[in-house]
Amino acid sequence: MRPYTPTSPNSLKHSPLFAALLMSCTMPQADYVAFLTRADSLMGVRQDSLQAQFHIGTYARFDYDEATGVFVFSDSGVAKVLADAQFVGEVSRNDTTWAWAWALRQLSPSLTQSAIKARRYGWWHGIHRLKASGWHADYMDGWEMTSLTGMIAGAEGGYRAPSSDSTAYTFVLFHNVRWAPPGATVDSYLVSPRASQ
Question: 82-92, pLDDT tens digit by residue?
Fold first, then answer.
């Protein structure tokens, strides 16, 4: 008799049977609602903390540099608050559909790691909305996906911004939120060619 040798997790990932079982897994609706409620509550506390400490949302403008992934909140060209951003996704205002950041080709994979974590979580736990893109959505759905992703990825808070052409609401998560050095200008944080256009 041969001794039992456990199957390695990596070999399971490539098994057709395992893939079929994973695809058929669906989290019960009551469990999903409880999970979403917990995420909304947690991210609400984190959002309130960001607002109290850094006054996110009160500054005259924000700029973003895709090379560094840094959001810069500013007043009159003076940088006030910096945050490392991860894109979650966007809700189209034209056809009211949700697109995950990992499905948006214009985004660098380094800026979609939190969304990829959420997708992986969705596959393992049977949460359809975390693993599928293109479903009917409004801005509240965008906030819900941001809350879920923020909890999964350990983000400090989230933000909703209009796309540059105002055709979508873009949702991002913030990590490493910090004060800009006194007197720092916005331009000192915009290093990519696209940011300076």
Answer: 999 999 999 99
